[in-house]
Amino acid sequence: MLYTELIRLWDEAVRLIDARDWQGALTKLNQITDHNCRTLFVVASAHIALGQLDLAIKALDQAIAKDQCLAVGFFQRAAVHMMANKLEEALSDCIWAQKNMRENPVIDYKQLGLRFKMYSWQVLYNAAAVHSRLQQWDKAKSILLAALQEKGVGRSSLVDAAVETVSRREVLTPLLVPEGEVFRPRKKEVDQLKPRDFLGEAKVITSLIPNDDFRGFDPLRPQKPGYYEPKVEEGQESRYMTMKNSYVAKGAGELTVPAGAELFVYSDEDRDGLAIVIYDGKRGLVPKFMLEPRAKKNKDKRRNELASGIPHPPALKPPNRPQGLSQPPPELRPSCVSAAHTTPPMNNNSTHIPAQQTSTSLQEPGSVIVKVHYKYTIALNVPLETSFRDLQEKVAQKLGQPATNIRLRHKKHGSEVLTPLDGDNGLDSLEDVAELGRATIWCQPEDPLANRTILYQMVALYDYTGQGPEDLEFSEGDTIDILSEVNEEWLEGHTAGNIGIFPRSFAHRDT
What we know:
- By secondary structure, the chain is an alpha+beta fold.
- The chain has helices at residues 3-18, 22-29, 37-49, 53-66, 71-83, 87-100, 120-133, 137-147, 155-167, 187-191, 301-305, 388-399; strands at 106-108, 117-119, 239-243, 262-271, 274-279, 282-287, 291-293, 367-373, 377-383, 406-411, 418-420, 438-445, 456-460, 479-485, 490-495, 498-503, 507-508.
- Residues 220-228, 297-309 and 324-362 have low confidence and may be disordered.
């Protein structure tokens, strides 16, 4: 079967699902002779909506057979098994769904075309629903209490209500992917199904403008070198400016201009507060108070040394995720309580100190004041010879956290990168980072990296959206721990509790 035909039938079926025509969608899907795991998931969703549970289970079996790591497939099949009263199979699917999440609190399937985020607490909830149907009330309640410690939107209210339901010895209703939410083909592939003009477009052969390669009608285009400025009448001033905010035309002769647009000012003489400008090839009026001079180019030396735009994709294909030291598969419960959800105890030994008050703390001779940036700022007065381990214990005690669940970092002189203090090569004592009796430490709550070594750190230059399940997503400015160098263009990194691979060109190493 041609791939274009598969995309066409898949797109038509999804449009029918949006119109709630489930039978019509199945008719389109049945014409596909070479399914993939995502189209089979769509088939199962249509059967579930029609109440055809056996056919839905069969479609999900085929989808999982094509992708045995499809966690959302196991999650969906567990709920359908419960609806069909196949409890042993449902419990097994819950376990496999949790294993395929690979200790991630959430998996976002948006990149694969499914507008659904699956949280680990939802898998635990379905496991508790299975035990409630088996009349194992204590087991169901203990799993729900574990789910309360997981991260996720909507967790608290739904799980709290489920605990009360189980306490009354009532059966829980399983969770499913919302009706109508299915895997969709990529928009780019659907657009390519439309007829295309292969004759090309007009090309500039000759022009009065030097180095002109423009093919449209906007006279305000940047040229090489400089800008092309339309001719103006003698005695008139002209210049380029930008719009502070968007403006919608309200009268005759006015222009609609978006915020940040660059336009050419013909004249800003007083015409009821309006200026004559050219934008998008049109001449008209806009309010003068909304114009501002064009921003100067950034001449920061360090920025010029770095990439000036989003880099090209790596030439090498991303390999499989580097194999680190093996770890046991996650059980159907969280291994520890995340430090981000623990409220620090409010007593005489744990005081919330605003950042502006830390400088006024009393300092004893031979000691150093350590300012710790957390969700709030705290201050500690400790001896100068305090070791890393002792400092970690003191900070953990004051924050009310386990010492293994906090991560301390500091900034080296002249650097913006937060360097981890790991006790081995990061900090022997406070003398290494203290200046004039002061030291600043950053505290990050997260699960520690088990049996992994941080080679060095890099700073993200751009936002990176993962193109596959093994990719690491991050935002501009994030600090990334580098765990291994996969090849010349790909690295394995860790940030925000997630591990994955990403292109080297999207980050910068501060040396």
